[in-house]
């Protein structure tokens, strides 16, 4: 079915506005809320095992369309693999707030809502949108757009409303979505560089394609791979330094941006500490330190610190995140290191503590993580999209980098 471009644009705007707030404090716990409703225990269980619950909790404005245990039995009788169940359930998570009142007062009687399936980056074309339409007799119909424009389910009752954080509603049954229910691409069929190129990381993807590092990525795909992909802006600013490296060192730098384990954002949040990378080879450590900084996950080398701005694709066993800086391993950029005593096992430099007043009102243009004597040679720090700073300034920085990333889409 073809979508009206204006409606698509409006929905894209909704997705964007939500993307801007991915690290809001967790104001609710969907698992705990649903636990109060035993007739939704199966739905609740599958939100947990698919990790969708973590994703839901990290959002600010969300609607969960729950189906009761009978409805879930219908879904489970199809014996889908867990990855498919995840996609199907992700269609039931709308990235906007729809309480009972709003559902019955939709402007023009119909609306399209972007879903978490759409946001995974794996939904093809226009799939991943749900059509909500006010029907005769006070009913509200729901239909996955890729299912031919039929209203397959209806609103039953509200279960929980916390405006405008989370609304959990019951709908009559699972929404059929041929695309979400389609067999998921085997990991070896995911073309990493194509996915990166299509989502604001074309420079990194092209650089990777020109290096043997690309094969290292491919070789690790099946066993689990998490990639920290520098945004185009970050990568462009870094290219002069990159070209200055030997071919071997270029390969190590690229391999430094991936770890051979599947890790979602919530897994990263709960596993702070040093991690090996694809570049790790015996004595050459090439380690990264993952560290939560409030709701933001940072990656620290002893030379620089990058922030994860958003998730580009999450399709078990592959997760790709966009980061706002090129990660500079001390093994290759010794001269960029602070001339302080060996920072070893915890290489985190304390440079940020010297400045960045924690004033929440820090303006977007505050110099924040601006040059210190030791990182003035770090060209990536000159990029406009990495305004750092604590609390407010940091948040603005994240928004800016996301905005830039979006403009590049
Ligand atoms: C949400 O609640 C469940 C059940 O009470 C608990 O197991 C889980 O750890 C909670 N999640 C978070 C992020 O607090
Ligand atoms: C409602 O319909 C009118 C007239 O067709 C249109 O101009 C307007 O954009 C629609 N509003 C929404 C929110 O779709
Ligand atoms: C939702 O589906 C109905 C029925 O197919 C259609 O008339 C309506 O235009 C759709 N709404 C949107 C916003 O596309
Ligand atoms: C929504 O979340 C914010 C914090 O993120 C909280 O202050 C507010 O009370 C929440 N609203 C409701 C209705 O729970
Ligand atoms: C991914 O696609 C690019 C071109 O878009 C191609 O050059 C590359 O070989 C593909 N990678 C794999 C593993 O098929
Ligand atoms: C390239 O390497 C040379 C020699 O190590 C150094 O002087 C120069 O500053 C480097 N250029 C860049 C852009 O890093």
UniProtKB/TrEMBL annotation:
<dbReference type="Pfam" id="PF02469">
    <property type="entry name" value="Fasciclin"/>
</dbReference>
<dbReference type="GO" id="GO:0098552">
    <property type="term" value="C:side of membrane"/>
</dbReference>
<keyword id="KW-0336">GPI-anchor</keyword>
<comment type="similarity">
    <text>Belongs to the fasciclin-like AGP family.</text>
</comment>
<feature type="signal peptide">
    <location>
        <begin position="1"/>
        <end position="27"/>
    </location>
</feature>
<feature type="region of interest" description="Disordered">
    <location>
        <begin position="338"/>
        <end position="385"/>
    </location>
</feature>
<keyword id="KW-0449">Lipoprotein</keyword>
<keyword id="KW-0325">Glycoprotein</keyword>
<feature type="domain" description="FAS1">
    <location>
        <begin position="226"/>
        <end position="330"/>
    </location>
</feature>
<keyword id="KW-0732">Signal</keyword>
<protein>
    <submittedName>
        <fullName>OLC1v1022499C1</fullName>
    </submittedName>
</protein>
<dbReference type="GO" id="GO:0005886">
    <property type="term" value="C:plasma membrane"/>
</dbReference>
<keyword id="KW-0472">Membrane</keyword>
<keyword id="KW-0677">Repeat</keyword>
<dbReference type="InterPro" id="IPR000782">
    <property type="entry name" value="FAS1_domain"/>
</dbReference>
<dbReference type="InterPro" id="IPR036378">
    <property type="entry name" value="FAS1_dom_sf"/>
</dbReference>
<comment type="function">
    <text>May be a cell surface adhesion protein.</text>
</comment>
<keyword id="KW-1003">Cell membrane</keyword>
<dbReference type="InterPro" id="IPR033254">
    <property type="entry name" value="Plant_FLA"/>
</dbReference>
<feature type="compositionally biased region" description="Low complexity">
    <location>
        <begin position="362"/>
        <end position="374"/>
    </location>
</feature>
<keyword id="KW-0654">Proteoglycan</keyword>
């Amino acid at each position: 079915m073809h979508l009206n471009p204006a409606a698509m644009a409006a929905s894209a705007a909704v997705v964007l506005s939500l993307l801007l707030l991915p690290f809001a404090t967790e104001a609710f716990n969907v698992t705990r809320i649903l636990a109060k409703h035993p007739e939704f225990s199966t739905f609740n269980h599958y939100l947990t095992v698919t990790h969708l619950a973590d994703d839901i909790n990290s959002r600010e404005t969300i609607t969960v369309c729950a189906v009761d245990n009978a409805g879930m039995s219908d879904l489970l009788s199809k014996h889908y693999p867990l990855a498919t169940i995840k996609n199907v359930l992700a269609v039931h998570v709308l990235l906007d707030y729809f309480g009972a009142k709003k559902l019955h007062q939709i402007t023009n009687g119909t609306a399209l809502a972007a879903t978490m399936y759409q946001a995974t980056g794996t939904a093809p074309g226009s799939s991943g949108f749900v059509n909500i339409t006010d029907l005769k007799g006070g009913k509200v119909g729901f239909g996955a757009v890729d299912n031919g424009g039929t209203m397959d389910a209806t609103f039953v009752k509200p279960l929980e409303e916390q405006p405008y954080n989370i609304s959990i509603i019951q709908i009559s049954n699972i929404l059929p979505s041929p695309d979400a229910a389609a067999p998921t691409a085997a990991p070896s069929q995911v073309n990493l560089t194509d996915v990166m190129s299509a989502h604001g990381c074309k420079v990194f993807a092209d650089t990777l394609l020109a290096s043997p590092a690309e094969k290292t990525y491919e070789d690790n795909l099946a066993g689990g791979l998490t990639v920290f992909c520098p945004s185009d802006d970050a990568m462009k600013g870094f290219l002069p330094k990159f070209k200055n490296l030997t071919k071997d060192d270029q390969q190590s730098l690229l391999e430094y941006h991936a770890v051979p384990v599947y890790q979602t954002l919530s897994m990263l949040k709960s596993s702070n500490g040093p991690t090996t990378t694809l570049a790790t080879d015996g004595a050459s450590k090439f380690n990264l330190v993952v560290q939560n900084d409030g709701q933001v996950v940072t990656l620290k080398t002893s030379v620089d610190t990058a922030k994860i701005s958003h998730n580009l694709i999450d399709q078990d066993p592959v997760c790709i995140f966009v980061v706002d800086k090129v990660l500079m391993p001390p093994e290759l950029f010794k001269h960029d290191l602070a001339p302080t005593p060996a920072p070893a096992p915890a290489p985190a430099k304390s440079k940020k503590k010297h400045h960045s007043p924690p004033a929440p009102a820090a303006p977007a243009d505050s110099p924040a993580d601006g040059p210190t004597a030791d990182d003035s040679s770090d060209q990536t720090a000159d990029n406009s999209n990495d305004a750092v700073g604590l609390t407010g300034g940091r948040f603005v920085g994240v928004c800016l980098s996301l905005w830039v990333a979006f403009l590049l889409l």
